[in-house]
From TrEMBL:
<dbReference type="InterPro" id="IPR036280">
    <property type="entry name" value="Multihaem_cyt_sf"/>
</dbReference>
<protein>
    <recommendedName>
        <fullName>Cytochrome c domain-containing protein</fullName>
    </recommendedName>
</protein>
Amino acid sequence: MAKNRLLLLSNLVLVGLLIFSGYSFKNRLNTTSTELKAEEVKSLEAFVDVYKVLMSPRCMNCHPAGDIPLQGDEQKLHAMSPMRGVDGKGILTLKCSNCHAPEGVPGEHTPPGNPEWHLPPADMKMVFEGKSPRELALQLVDPERNGHKDMEALKAHADDGLVKEGWTMGGDRALPPLSYEEFKEAWLTWIENGAVATAE
């Protein structure tokens, strides 16, 4: 009897911990209350700017819903129809690096370059295309969908070379709606104030 009572008590404690941890995680990511703290408001306002940049062609073209990258300011399917591949770098002989060299080639309508040019891998596609602000915010802070990044890694990701490439591709490509410095500030402000997602 005592053993059964102890087992029941242990199970109740475990369930309580799971509920509490689940609530804490949900509460941090899914702010639906109309009574927001000042830092939550600051986070939400910052994400408005973050979202504008992530929805721009310079970001979304390499975060498509399908397995073919988008191309140009019109965000059409890539003319060469390269496929994502397992590692995000293409398949068979049609690799991203065939055209996207370590450095960009000067001139109009030439492919931008970067030594790390690739799409996200097949097992972690990190799609931006078609995502609402809430959907994208929740995805960005979910390690199971953001490349296994915690909050510190997310903050550091703003300095990733491929992220910065969005502002240096050259040619007649439209720049993101914020400068890189403005984007980084908004990105860090969003994360450091709770990485709050909109209610809808």
